[in-house]
Structure formats: C-alpha cells, structure tokens
Amino acid sequence: MSMHRFAPAVTLGLVCLGIVTGANEARADSRDDTFYDLLTMEDLDCESKYFSCPRGPANLVGIAQAACGEMMRGASKSETVAKLGDIKLSMSRKQVLTFINISAAVYCPLYL
Description:
Elements: H1 7-20, H2 28-41, H3 57-72, H4 77-85, H5 93-107
Helix pairs in contact: 1-5, 2-5, 3-4, 3-5, 4-5
C-alpha cells in the first residue's frame, strides 16, 4: 500500500495538530507556512517543475485561495480540479487533487 493513499489523512492530521497545539492563528503567515510545508512534502512546491513562482510561495497561496473560492461558490472538487488543471497541464489529475486537498485542509476545511 503506498504512502500517498494516506496523504489526505496525514495532511488533515497535521493541520488539526497545529490547531490543537495552539498554533498562532493570528499570524496569517503561519498558515501559509503550514500550507507550503505540506506542498513540499508532496513535491508540489515552487521547487517542483509544476509551478513558476516569481513571487515565491505567495503564488501558490493565491492558487490555493482561488481553489477555496471556487468551492465556496459551489464548485465540486472535480470542477475545481478541472479549472486548476489548466494552470499546469504537466500535473496529473491526482497531483491537482492533492493540491486542492491540501488547500482545503489549510484554508477552507469545510470543503474537505
């Protein structure tokens, strides 16, 4: 059984651990740091071949927030995957879904 099958559970667990242990939610950048760390674990960060990040991690935070915005407007994860999949055609559908799941876990957990 591959480790990637557990990635959403691990992601959610890490996010919950940060909340339970009293992570400083007043600092917006701590949530951004958590998001970027989770992307790095999945090789979906600015160092990967999938994203150009002229503004650094802020580029990926913007994409994540756009994904949450789509889901908040009623788009399903599949519809959101289709829209975000257009950003980098070299990403597999699974990678885009992983990106969306991490985005939701950090920025809009109601949509997990």
